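Thread: Newbie trying to understand structure tokens

Hi all, I'm a second-year student working on a class project, and my supervisor (Dr. K.) asked me to get a predicted structure for one chain before our next meeting. I've only ever worked with sequences, so writing a 3D structure as a token string is new to me. If someone could post the tokens and maybe explain what I'm looking at, I'd be very grateful. Here's the chain:
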Amino acid sequence: MKKSILILLIAAGAYCLQSCNSNNRSTDDTVEHAMDQNEEMEQSGDTGMLQNDDSDFAVKAANAGMAEVSAGEIAQEKAQDQRVKDFAAMMVQDHTKANEELKSIAANKNITLPAAAGEDHQEQIADLNSYSGADFDKEYMGMMVDDHQKVIDLFEGAAEDIEDAELRAFAEKNLPVLRKHLEQAQALEEDID
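---
Reply by user tm_fold:
Sure, no problem. This is what the structure looks like when written as tokens:
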């Protein structure tokens, strides 16, 4: 009986240790892991006709979307200017909606998406979190301009080059929203300087 309990305790401890280790994996590994899994699935034929570029787009779009939501949540709390807070609320709402749509598409196509934003975005968000007041507002809006320019490039490329019709439609549908975000971010950035 004591031996059985000891074995169960050792097994439970090993399970807990494994769980802790998998949760301590860096978020960049999560993005890389998702890309690696998608590549393996494509090579094994598990994704049907899905191309690696298509799944890479989905991973990169999810990564950027999660970063926008995280930064927006911080800005809703820390921003000084109400217009920046309102912009941040729009970022959280719009990017959460797009992230959910992408998750649904990915699930239907057996695409693995990252569970959290990548390390580069996490570092950017940590840096953003170190600012306060008007400096925070300037830094956040500058980040939004830069990030949206990059994301628009990603989505434009996907709208032109992606093989999968559903992912291409997702990119095309979200481009006007992203362009609107960029316009508003640029106007706010100029206005609060």
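A couple of things are worth pointing out once you decode it. Residues 133-161 form the longest helix (29 residues). The helical segments are 2-23, 27-44, 52-78, 82-108, 119-129, 133-161, 165-192. Feel free to ask follow-ups in this thread.
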